[in-house]
Design brief:
The protein is α/β, with parallel strands linked by helices. The chain contains 17 helices and 20 strands. It is elongated, with a radius of gyration of 30 Å. It binds threonylcarbamoyladenylate (TXA) and magnesium ion.
Length: 512
């Protein structure tokens, strides 16, 4: 079958295209179309055979019922048995929009559409293309999300094409879906009404209109023995190809933990993806890093989530680490989908961080223009088993000087460069838990301890690696002395690398 893609503009709709698509549906064919939530795979909801085609195109188990889409509230009567007062109020308030309600079905709705159930899910979308199409098709269009079963729902026509090419007659391309996550499903046959799937219409919003609503415990992410009430929620839906893991903690811990996890995985030769937010993306450097949206405006995260998961499928990553997001407003729906995509794999950020005593190493010298930056650069070149932020600082730095030219020259001879470095003064930000401070001489160590206290994390470099010497300033010395300094540092940094890696190995053993 050839799948035709037609562009259609919501603001200036080509009704001929709508008519053509409507005819396909009336004749029992399949047309994918945009809604405000995700793209739907449309079929005539009152046609048993069309339902079968839908399941076949998606590769979806046929016990998983479809949502019937309508364009006018009056259309409800014909397909449901009884509309409660509460349902009327919710429809008046939230339709058209991202709310699906479940009712007792009438005889006219085939069991093919409801997956054999006596109930039917109904939604009136707000997207204008969707509504015109429903009218052109006769008023009742069943539409699951237009993805292959088990893949993230499509939020663009291109996503639909990726999954449905050759399997359906037509795709209407109306641009990106505005919300990006599927509708909220509320079972109106339950007393009180029960949320089976969280979405953009939140529990709070529903409760403001009809009072208390319950929530199916399986959507809360709690491990539960019970089967979800919405049959579709039991499948490992929305699954990316790579193993997705959600890292949980406060945002600072999450960033540190994900950096470490990504670093470890890359050491093992894995391709790693990171789901970051606009606020945190700058803190990552290893792996394929994607911005999922802004924490300030969680709607942007909802809108991008599925596209990001699909992009990772194309990047061929083995593992994806994701930050977690606040469980407020649409955040509930975001975390619900993310957890499903992760198959409920969660990692505690603080547990990851705890196994690493130091996350940052600061080399301290007098002016931060020679030995300190040399040591830092030499350590950066080493193969370390853990990730560290490696810096150098000076005790007396008045302005951001570049490095000493002789130091630069000897480093160049060893194929290293410090041209980017600018001297920076040691401040309180360079002292604290998780930071290993290594000074060149004893005086510097004593001064730091006198000023900031002694948490047992300040050492001279020599002392830390078990040597008695002390490294003194080269100020005014000839080039040959710089050459000797390079040799000495090379020996000390080798020892330091060994010590750090041994500690890293022991640390990770403790956590096996
Ligand atoms: O936003 C949406 O709802 C999108 C767009 C296209 O409208 N559609 C959508 O459909 O997400 P689908 O088929 O991917 O998800 C429908 C969910 C499934 O989890 C299904 O099990 C549940 O709704 N469902 C449908 N009818 C049901 C019923 N009678 N009782 C319980 N759950 C039902
Ligand atoms: Mg779906």
């Amino acid at each position: 079958m050839k799948t035709i893609m037609k562009k259609i503009d919501e603001k200036n709709m080509d009704m001929q295209v709508i008519q053509e698509a409507g005819e396909i549906l009336k004749n029992g064919g399949l047309v994918a179309f945009p809604t405000e939530t995700v793209y739907g795979l449309g079929a005539n909801a009152l046609d048993e055979e069309a339902a079968k085609k839908t399941y076949a195109a998606k590769g979806r188990p046929s016990d998983n019922p479809l949502i019937v889409h309508i364009a006018e509230v009056q259309a409800l009567e014909k397909i449901v048995d009884n509309v409660s007062r509460e349902a009327e109020v919710l429809a008046a308030r939230f339709w058209p929009g991202p709310l699906t309600m479940i009712f007792k079905k009438s005889g006219i709705v085939p069991y093919g559409t409801t997956g054999g159930l006596e109930t039917v899910a109904v939604r009136m979308p707000s997207n204008k293309i969707a509504r015109e199409l429903i009218l052109a098709a006769g008023g009742y269009v069943s539409a699951p999300s237009a993805n292959t079963s088990g893949r993230p729902s499509p939020t663009t026509a291109a996503h639909v094409m990726d999954d449905m090419d050759g399997k359906i007659e037509m795709i209407l391309d109306g641009g990106s879906a505005e919300i990006g996550l599927e509708s909220t499903i509320v079972d109106m046959t339950a007393e009180p009404p029960m949320i089976l799937r969280p979405g953009a219409i939140t529990a709070d919003m529903l409760e403001q209109v009809i009072g208390y609503v319950s929530i199916d415990e399986t959507v809360l992410g709690i491990e539960s023995d019970k089967a979800p009430k919405a049959p579709g929620m039991k499948y490992r839906h929305y699954a990316p190809k790579a193993r997705l893991m959600i890292v949980e903690g406060n945002i600072r811990e999450e960033v540190l933990a994900i950096r470490q996890l990504a670093f470890d995985a890359i050491q093992k030769g894995k391709h790693v993806g990171i789901i970051a937010s606009a606020e945190t993306i700058g803190y990552y450097s290893n792996g394929i890093i994607k911005n999922i949206g802004s924490r300030e405006n969680e709607k942007t995260i909802a809108r991008n989530l599925y596209a990001v998961l699909r992009e990772f499928d194309e990047e061929q990553v083995d593992e994806i680490y994701s930050e977690s997001f606040a469980l407020a407003g649409i955040g509930n729906a975001i975390m619900n989908r993310l957890e499903k995509a992760a198959g409920h794999l969660r990692i505690s950020a603080s547990a990851v961080i705890k196994r690493q005593k130091y996350r940052r190493i600061v080399f301290v010298s007098a002016t931060d223009t020679c030995t300190g930056p040399m040591a830092a650069e030499m350590l950066r070149q080493k193969k370390l088993y853990q990730e560290y932020v490696i810096d150098s600082r000076g005790m007396v730095v008045l302005f951001p000087e570049p490095v000493n030219q002789k130091a630069e020259a000897v480093m160049k001879s060893a194929r290293m460069s410090m041209t980017e470095h600018k001297a920076a003064a040691f401040t309180s930000a360079d002292y604290g838990t998780g930071i290993l401070v290594l000074t060149m001489d004893r005086g510097q160590k004593e001064k730091i301890i006198a000023e900031y206290g002694d948490e047992g994390n300040v050492f001279t470099l020599c002392e830390y690696v078990g040597e008695d010497e002390e490294i003194l300033s080269l100020h005014g010395k000839p080039l040959t002395e710089y050459g000797k300094r390079l040799e000495l540092l090379s020996k000390l940094i080798d020892k330091l690398t060994e010590k750090l890696n041994k500690a890293a190995e022991e640390g990770s053993m403790e956590n096996v």
